[in-house]
Amino acid sequence: MASSSSPGDLQAALERLRAGDVDAAEAMVAPLLAADPAHAQALHLGGEIAARAGRLDLAASRLDAAARAAPDPAILASAARVHWRLGDLAAASAAARRSLEARPGFLPALLVDALARHASGDAAGCRERLALTGLPDAGPMAVEFAFQAVAEIVKDGRRVFAADTPRSAIAACPTLTVVTCSVDEAKLARCRAALAATLAPGFEHIEIRAPRSLADAYNGALARARGEAIVFVHDDVEVLSPRLDGLLARALASADIVGVAGTRRLAGPTLGWGGQPAMRGWLVHGSSAAGAWDFSALSLHAGLAGGMQGLDGCFIAARTAAARKVGFDAATFDGFHFYDLDFCLRAHRAGLAVATDTAILVAHASRGGLGTAWQAQAQRFASKYAPLGREPSQPSHFHAVRLAGAGEALRLQAELDGFCLVLGSREG
User: Domain for residue 127, yes or no?
Assistant: First the structure.
């Protein structure tokens, strides 16, 4: 009897899953499985769909059946991952071993085997297995697999790598000035409320309405700021981390300028131009107004990472004296772009310590755009810093996962931090 699970049917279901439409993907694969219950590829895809939906028992049943029909290394690794999520460490380890026997060094199986060893208390075995994966500097697909596995810990309501208590912050906090420019009172109100929730009372908040340019506004704020430290934050940013002043005190004890996303190789007009290996930072795209929260990781490195040549301007903190030494080039960048890359690159070239810190987590409502205004300022940036941007842009990736809210984002931040500690990729 001919199988009704044609490659085209399976591809269509896979595309719906990749698009995030889990219900549509399940609706497409279920009749294929009903018509051909032993089809290994349909069972594999159906298992992945069920796992994404959190139906782990169904996922395990489908993946185990797929492995019986075709003991492919990828199917076995998927089954191992689901059994690990269910807490069945024996089944997870067995499936991972079978996968590795069929394909030695297969990263998904190595990673699940490491996770199972960690869960069973074998810390040394976990580190040994993780060392074989090549993470965190493996290819983007490997990093994506690991990132999604850690995200599943949070989605399953578990706690695996997160430390029992947060790392303590330095008690002596600097006096603080926060600068926000806005033409939207609703955005400004959300930003203000988030700052009030994370900072001790008494910080100075300079709010600038309808500035001519961000560089011009920030220069004016620097001239009158009273704080020992200064934070430049977009109006559509909400700080999620509690006790931000303590986090800033710890970060600025080692760095002059700190952000949440950056690159050690600013080779062109975007942070990603120099490629994935140079990028550091984690941030959330979303807002309390929209209710959508996408946690984005630029890399699987945690902590305070120095040597940055560029930072995303959505959130930049600095020692005020250091920021005044650098200043913003309002003559060249008279709009709302490139003030940040210019400021940070000049600071780096002047010998100041520029860093990212994954301990600081913010939500940024905007993902940015490369419209005509951006293009015009990009030309000025390229002219000022030639030959930057003349070499081809390198591949870069934002690994992202949709979360239910700010609380889940903070829990994922803690799990990633703990995972990076075990991985040996926590810096600073």
Answer: yes
